[in-house]
Amino acid sequence: MPAAPERRTQEQRRTTTTAAVLSAAAELVVESGVPAVTLARVGERAGYSRGIVTHHFGSKQALLEALAKASQGGFVPGVAECAPGLDRLVRLIKGYLTELGRDGVRGRAFLVLWAEAATAAGLAGTFRERDESFRAELRADVEAGVRDGTIRADVVPREVAVAVLGQLRGIGLQRLLDPAAVETRGLGPAVADQWRRALSAG
């Protein structure tokens, strides 16, 4: 007699539901834009009711905030395990552009939301926080590189962080608008090498 299937815990069911809802929301953001996203449409796309979406997230605003955080977290595999410094910074830049080339739905949704945040007060705070977190990560790499002598001492970490983030987001938006015009396979290594040469103390 076959064994009965193992029952999932409440936490496992919640995790599965959350992932499905966030994936559905990302698809709708990319396909139709932020204004077209409703809790009912997200629930329908995910295979649940609007009530389930409301129960898990409470509001469209909270859902979009959760999507922004989930889409950006761990975007570049392996970087979190690297020690801060020039090598990590270069790997992050190259990896970010490589991931853009994969055209993942969540990555594209993040860029749509980020652009929308410029004029949507409800999203602005979330994306200011996400961008500042990214800049802080970049600053830490530059500061570590200055300390260990691999990055020039005259480099200003805050300025590098703003410039790198601006470049990566700008390339991402260009690819979102016209994928054929932005081929990231060769661009990632090239941009990473430019930053290595611009910052290197040696």
From TrEMBL:
Domain HTH tetR-type: 15-75
Keyword Nucleus: no
InterPro entries xref list: BetI_C (IPR039538), Homeodomain-like_sf (IPR009057), HTH-type_TetR-like_transc_reg (IPR050109), HTH_TetR (IPR001647), Tet_transcr_reg_TetR-rel_C_sf (IPR036271)
Keyword terms, alphabetized: DNA-binding, Repressor, Transcription, Transcription regulation
Domain of life: Bacteria
GO molecular function: DNA-binding transcription factor activity; transcription cis-regulatory region binding
DNA-binding stretch(es), residue numbering of this chain: 38-57
PANTHER family, per the entry: HTH-TYPE TRANSCRIPTIONAL REGULATOR BETI, HTH-TYPE TRANSCRIPTIONAL REGULATOR RUTR
Record-given protein name: AcrR family transcriptional regulator
Organism placement in taxonomy: Bacteria, Bacillati, Actinomycetota, Actinomycetes, Pseudonocardiales
